[in-house]
Amino acid sequence: MRQRLLTLVPRLPATLVPALAAPVLWAAWLGWDQHRDVQRDGTTTGPYEPWQVIGLVLTLLVPVCWAASRRRIAGAVLGTTGGLTAAAYWDWSDDGSGLFVVGVGMVTVGSLIATTAVSAVIASAKRHGPPAAGHA
Questions:
Q1: Residue (of 103, 102, 130, 99) closest to 26 by Cα position
Q2: Contacts of 71 (CB under 8 A, 6+ apart)
Q3: Which of 35, 63, 66, 112 could bond to 21 as cystine, CB 3.0-4.6 Å?
Q4: What predicted TM-score, i.e. pTM, was given to this entire model?
Q5: What is the rounded distance in angstroms from the CA atom of residue 69 to the CA atom of residue 111?
Q6: What are the residue ranges spanned by the domains of the chain?
Q7: Residue among 53, 55, 25, 49 nearest 35 (CA)
Q8: Which residues are 44's β-sheet partners?
Q9: How does pLDDT run across 59-85, given as a tens digit for each residue?
């Protein structure tokens, strides 16, 4: 039991860092903009602008790449996906229609797919190293 705990401890930060970073970054990028914009023709948009979502995705690359570069793909994927899912649920759960569950599900599946792909590429690049000089 003690040996199993000792092998788990080095892996823990690779899950905790993305899991804690995801809701913090969600709050920083998306948490403050909670109203929909009404256009002149009566349609509504929002509450988020595209630049906010792009900013969230780009800043999430930092903890995902950090964990994946340490070959902790499961931690990068599960930590980020869990953190984003919890943040989306917390942010959207006051929706009276109940459709927020669909959105949370989409965030879960999308982040699972995206972080898996990014983590696999980063871990693969780390494993194979940079190309040798003189080879094109």
A1: 103
A2: 123, 126, 127
A3: 63
A4: 0.80
A5: 18
A6: 8-128
A7: 49
A8: 38
A9: 999 999 999 998 889 999 999 999 999
Cα 115 from Cα 19, distance rounded (Å)? 12
pLDDT for 10-45, tens place per residue? 678 889 999 999 999 999 999 887 777 777 887 877
Residues 114, 30, 102, 22, CA torsion sign: positive
Token reading at 39: 């256009």
DSSP state of 11: G
With CA atoms as reference, report the closest residue to 113 among 59, 69, 57: 57
SS3 assignment, position 77: helix
97 phi-psi bin (left φ>0, alpha ψ -120 to 50, beta other):
alpha
CA distance 128 to 125: 5
Residue of 75, 80, 83, 78 whose CA lies nearest to 23: 83
Q: CA 135, CA 36: separation in Å to the nearest integer?
A: 53
